[in-house]
Write a structure and sequence with these properties.
By secondary structure, the protein is of the alpha+beta class. It contains three helices and five strands. Strand 1 and strand 2 form a beta hairpin. The two termini are 22 Å apart.
Length: 115
């Protein structure tokens, strides 16, 4: 996953909106044969009542939630959002990718939570 993101960042660089990176990352994942779902729907519930739904940017191989950003810098709230998405999806592993970083390694954050 990270290798595909690095390839996209190398080709496009920072400065585009998130949807551009999502499209490019989807194309790269298809090229390297990684299974994924774009905009996977996760139902949200509160005390057993369905209250809405959220769409994940990417769900990779059914176990990794990838949240894409194009912001000045990643904030704690971005990791908190991803942890919420992971709990809602019943998953443990997430990856924040900020394509607006000058070097992508500074725009990556792994998030792990218990279900």
């Amino acid at each position: 996953m990270i290798g595909a993101a690095i390839e996209v960042h190398r080709a496009l660089g920072p400065g585009f909106i998130e949807s551009v990176y999502e499209e490019a990352l989807a194309a790269e994942l298809r090229l390297v044969g990684v299974g994924f779902t774009r905009q996977a729907v996760v139902e949200l519930a509160y005390k057993g009542a369905k209250i809405g739904e959220h769409r994940l940017d990417l769900l990779v191989e059914g176990c990794l939630v990838v949240e894409l950003k194009a912001v000045d810098r990643l904030l704690d709230i971005h990791a908190a959002q991803l942890r919420s998405y992971l709990r809602a999806a019943g998953l443990q592993l997430g990856l924040l990718i900020n394509f607006n970083a000058t070097e992508l390694r500074h725009g990556l954050k792994r998030v792990v939570t218990s279900t």
